[in-house]
Amino acid sequence: MAISNRMTSPPSCINAGVSVNYWLLAIYKVDAAGKTLKPVVEKELSRDEDAPMSISVHPTESALAFGINSATNKVEAGENENCRIFQYSEERIEAVHNKGTLASRNSDDYQKVTRFSKDGNVLATGGTDGVIALLNYPSLTPVMPVTQFKGHEILDIDFSADGAHIAAVSAMNLWIISTETGRVLEVITNPVLNKKKPFVFRTCRFGRGAFSNILYTVVNGDRNQKPFVCMWDATKWTRIRTLTVGPKPITTCTISPDGKLIAFSSSDMGLRICSSKSLQVLMTVPNVHTLPVTSLAFNNDASLLVSGSVDGTCRVVSVPKTFPKNNNFVMLILALLFLFLAGIVQVYQSNLIA
Known about the structure:
Elements: E1 6-8, E2 14-17, E3 24-31, E4 36-44, E5 54-57, E6 63-67, H1 72-76, E7 83-88, E8 93-99, E9 111-116, E10 122-127, E11 131-136, E12 147-148, E13 156-159, E14 165-169, E15 174-178, E16 184-188, E17 200-206, E18 214-220, E19 228-233, E20 239-244, E21 250-255, E22 261-266, E23 271-275, E24 281-285, E25 293-298, E26 304-309, E27 313-318, H2 328-353
Antiparallel strand pairs: 1-2, 2-27, 3-4, 5-6, 6-7, 7-8, 9-10, 10-11, 11-12, 13-14, 14-15, 15-16, 17-18, 18-19, 19-20, 21-22, 22-23, 23-24, 25-26, 26-27
Transmembrane segments: 329-348
Organism: Linnemannia schmuckeri
Protein name: Prolactin regulatory element-binding protein
């Protein structure tokens, strides 16, 4: 799925471009072998309303959820229907349901996060005004009362594998919330051990498959500090591991459907695919975009990684089935063995000279 009104195909990957005149919802079929995107169907959005700011694809139905602000006069009147549901086929894309979830009447606030639960029965939204809403799908009736964390901008939300919890992050807080009661179960307010460093949360994802008991959080520093990823035990909410992934701030991440891979985009416009188990970098794709990536997703079999950027392009990168093994340990042993043999040779030569 791409928001686009034109398409080009650069040689290294698949690309769909965007015009700023108006917004289209456009569905493409991906031809990975030919590195092309074939247009299937498009829908032009109202020119009086805001651009789509977030998207989630239903896991089992042909449905899409978006964060799209209503016209400014409606937002200011408290009539913002920011949560939009569309159904799609190869013939049409049709709006079927709208719902207001934001508390703010400021048109600068918007639905930054849109996320379906793993079974598709619940939809979560998060706003720049600090509001988190959980809605039944498809009725969009509230699952629980709206939660607002005033003074915070919701940056990301994700559902646990069983749907019992959501994790949500702002720059300074990580919340674990019960989806049944809406009660906040855990709050982690300090992204790092050293509180003096200006680190902030950026995104969060629950693992899948064998790693469904792990929560991954991304924490960014300033320009002189590398970002890192924290792995949390999703039963005890204790930190398991903290590792750096790349030199530049991370903008978003996604996890493959089988849970084995986790991909990150960074402010250097590159992509990194890592092992979900160890966070070892398996593949790096530099300079995928000219501006930072805002959305990232694997396809069902994790053979493709799709990225969308504020540069107005959508790129599709092929992901190999296997990755080269990490030979760092072997190389270290060989290096030590070489130094040991070199030392023996030097001692032997010294004895001959003597």
